[in-house]
């Protein structure tokens, strides 16, 4: 196993768990703590962005200077300090019993459902197993809902199962039964999947844009006085915008609104925020397409991959992308964790981050297919050519904006049909 695989495993374990642990430290019954719990995901995303800012500026400079060993030691030191800080609060953390392995619960529901396919479901929801076992007392009991009613078969109490309950012992009973609370947990996970599918494509657009923006910048005039700006450092505008928007929204914008309007604002919910972010993403892609059109007009005519257009023309699309990320990613984390039952918040956070991981593959697949379709056997390059001056990156941006618009329409339909906890 190589070092990158170990790094990915470490991130996959810690990244979903850290914000969930932070949210568990606040009591939803207390108004002030409820507000703090809502902010924890935004601040967590700010922390991720600030870490990326240091990595893409300081560490990138150290690496390009040839001091790779120093860079690795700096990363090791930062990770060690973070681990010690995490351990220092162990005795003061609020600890909640987990729901158990969510995948085993899901499999149990499927097995119980398949065993009871022939059973009829009572129209009033009666005859379903709703008694919680002693081991589940720390998990909030979820009331029966009418959505996805075909899954209610998993919780039907049959005569055979009733006999097990009365005298055959706990283990055989557990294998044949699925409580209403467990069953509703499975329902909630299935309900968020359409929203999750819609966020996968938006995640692919974010990831693809960042890499393509750097490609654009590498071909432009990067002179700032006597300094040559590294194309990758322009990503700092995206990171700073995202972090500043999240922090200023709660610290400055909302208090200023209350002071001027004399009333608290009606803030958009998580689903509305994701929709707003998708609209801004479309605008970002359109702006990037027009900037690329301008870059091509000032492109070199001698075959070199250069353009006399200044790299600072990329700033508007970086700033818009930062605002879009602030809307989509923070609301996405809030949504997936708030719409999963108690004990499954980590799975909800994992779903949010998993959409970004899958988005990488979706973006690469889209880019490959577009290049394959738009290139020819006669040597004509695709839209995203190795030499950007020979391609049409602007058309790829416009196409992606069109696809995001379709994704937005599907998302709006799914969001309107969604019924949460």
- What share of residues are in beta strands? under 5%
Unreliable residue stretches: 131-140, 164-174
Count of alpha and pi helical runs: 12
In the CATH hierarchy, what is the superfamily of the largest domain?
MFS general substrate transporter like domains
Main beta sheet: strand number and arrangement?
A: 2 strands, antiparallel
Counted beta strands: 2
Helix content: 55-70%
Distance between the termini: 41 Å
What is the name of the CATH topology of the largest domain? Growth Hormone, Chain: A
Strand order within the widest beta sheet: 1-2
**Whole-number mean pLDDT:** 77
> Pairing-aware structural class of the strands and helices?
mainly alpha
Order of helices and strands: HHHHHHHEEHHHHH
The CATH C-level class name of the largest domain: Mainly Alpha
Shape field: globular
Radius of gyration from CA coordinates: 26 Å
Q: Any key phrases for this structure?
A:
two-stranded antiparallel sheet; single chain; 2 strands; mainly alpha; 421 residues; 2 domains; Growth Hormone, Chain: A
In short:
With 421 residues, the protein is an all-alpha fold.
Write a structural description.
A two-stranded antiparallel sheet has the order 1-2. The protein is built from twelve helices and two strands, in the order H-H-H-H-H-H-H-E-E-H-H-H-H-H. Strand 1 and strand 2 form a beta hairpin. About 5% of the residues have low confidence. Helices cover 67% and strands 1% of the residues. It has two domains: 71 residues, no CATH class; 231 residues, MFS general substrate transporter like domains (Growth Hormone, Chain: A, Up-down Bundle). With 421 residues, the protein is mostly helical. It starts with a helix and ends with a helix. It comes from Trifolium subterraneum (Subterranean clover).
């Amino acid at each position: 196993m190589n070092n990158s695989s170990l790094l990915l495993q470490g991130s996959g374990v810690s990244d979903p768990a850290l914000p969930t642990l932070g949210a568990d430290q606040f009591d939803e019954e207390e108004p002030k703590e409820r507000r703090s719990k809502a902010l924890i995901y935004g601040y967590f995303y700010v922390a991720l962005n600030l870490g990326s800012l240091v990595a893409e500026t300081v560490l990138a400079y150290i690496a390009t200077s040839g001091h790779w060993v120093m860079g690795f030691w700096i990363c090791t030191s930062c990770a060690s300090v973070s681990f010690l800080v995490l351990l220092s609060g162990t005795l003061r953390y609020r600890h909640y019993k987990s729901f158990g392995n969510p995948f085993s619960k899901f499999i149990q529901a499927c097995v119980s459902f398949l065993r009871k396919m022939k059973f009829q479901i009572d129209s009033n929801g009666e005859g379903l197993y709703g008694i919680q076992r002693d081991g589940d007392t720390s998990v909030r009991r979820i009331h029966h809902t009418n959505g996805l009613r075909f899954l209610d078969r998993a919780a039907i109490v049959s005569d055979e199962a009733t006999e097990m309950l009365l005298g055959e012992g706990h283990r055989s009973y557990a294998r044949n039964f699925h409580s209403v609370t467990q069953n509703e947990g499975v329902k909630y996970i299935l309900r968020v999947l359409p929203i999750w599918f819609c966020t996968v494509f938006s995640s692919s657009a974010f990831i693809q844009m960042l890499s393509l923006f750097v490609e654009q910048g590498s071909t432009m005039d990067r002179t700032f006085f006597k300094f040559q700006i590294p194309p990758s450092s322009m990503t700092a505008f995206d990171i700073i915008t995202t972090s500043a928007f999240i922090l200023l929204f709660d610290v400055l914008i909302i208090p200023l609104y209350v002071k001027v309007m004399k009333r608290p604002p009606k803030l958009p919910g998580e689903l509305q925020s994701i929709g707003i972010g998708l609209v801004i993403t479309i605008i970002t892609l359109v702006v990037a397409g027009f900037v690329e059109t301008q870059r091509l007009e000032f492109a070199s005519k001698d075959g070199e991959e250069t353009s006399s257009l200044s790299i600072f023309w990329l700033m508007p699309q970086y700033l818009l992308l930062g605002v879009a990320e602030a809307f989509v990613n923070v609301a996405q984390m809030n949504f997936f964790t708030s719409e999963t039952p108690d004990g499954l918040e980590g799975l909800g956070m994992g779903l949010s981050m998993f959409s970004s991981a899958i988005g990488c593959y979706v973006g690469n697949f889209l880019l490959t297919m577009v290049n394959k379709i738009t290139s020819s056997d006669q040597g004509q390059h695709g839209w995203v050519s190795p030499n950007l001056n020979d391609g049409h990156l602007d058309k790829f941006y416009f196409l992606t904006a069109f696809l995001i618009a379709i994704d937005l329409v599907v998302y709006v339909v799914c969001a309107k049909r969604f019924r949460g906890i």
